[in-house]
Amino acid sequence: MRPILPVLTAALALSACAYNPELGRQQMTIVNDDSLTQAGEQAWNQALAKSTVSTDRRANARVRAVGQRVVDAAGLGQQPWDYAVFENTAPNAFVLPGGHVGVTTGLLTIVDNDDQLAAVIGHETGHVIAHHAAERQSQTVASSLLLGVLGAATGGDTARAISSYGGDAAKYGFLLPFSRKQELEADRLGVDFMQRAGYRPREAVVLWLHMQAQGGSSAPQFTSTHPSDATRIAALENYIAQRGW
Ligand SMILES: [Zn+2]
User: Looking at the 3D structure of the chain, how many domains does it have?
Assistant: First the structure.
């Protein structure tokens, strides 16, 4: 078994690293989009099963309208999308690969206007466009493989390690926290999308200030939006000023 290992490692390094022009950097993604779509489907069904969907028709229609404009602007409008408002006091939103947008009632109480709602959905869509979940998961798989390789050199079972970590990849992709760098990228992509959709990018700054004022970390597990710190807000303000928005 041992001669396979260097070949496998080299193949991974070659096939998994690609330049992403949206982000302007190299990205390593071992986990593919198909498994992400599947995991998105699972996470959506889980959210629907475990949470209470709001029966407020106006709120649902509002999220549908704003969400559709944002995903269209992000170039994802060609696929069908589901939208839902979840009864939850924690201000949160999520966009899942495969076409699902969820927003909590708590978020709707802190946004002053549709522009701010678009800023949140734009940020989450930014994570999807940038394949952040796949990237995060791939980093974990890669380090696990490395451990497997080390294990094999001392008599461990690499094949088993690979299939086990690969199998878990899709399952846990959405639970891994995003890195700081990924958050900044999602912020930037988010204002790009909302601007393209006709919303006012400056409202994104107001939104993140509202989020910051909320503080705490009582966010439900299926979401990935979280309060922002001063550095992030400053970076966003800088970017918006740079673009002349
Ligand atoms: Zn985020």
Answer: 1
**Side chain identity at 99, as an amino acid letter?**
G
Q: How far apart are CA 225 and CA 124, in angstroms?
A: 7
Smallest CA-to-CA distance from 88 within 67, 109, 68 is with: 109
Q: Which residue has the tokens 């939208």?
A: 83
Q: What is the 183 CA–ligand 1 centroid distance (Å)?
A: 5
Which pLDDT belongs to residue 106? 92
Quick check: is 24 in a domain?
Answer: no
CA of 2 to the centre of ligand 1 (A): 40
Residue 39 has a pLDDT of 81
Between the CA of 79 and the centroid of ligand 1 the distance, in Å, is 23
pTM of the model: 0.76
- Does the residue 103 lie in any domain? yes
Range of the domain at 37: 33-131+177-242
Secondary structure percentages of the chain, helix, strand, coil, to 5 = 60, 10, 30
Looking at the domain assignment, is residue 147 inside a domain?
A: no
Burial class (CB in 10 A: 0-12, 13-18, 19+), 76: middle
- CA 11 to centroid of ligand 1, rounded, Å: 31
Question: If 0-12 CB within 10 Å is exposed, 13-18 middle and 19+ buried, where does residue 6 land?
Answer: exposed
| Spans of the chain below 70 pLDDT | 1-17, 28-33, 137, 139-176, 215-228
> Residue 186 domain-assigned?
yes
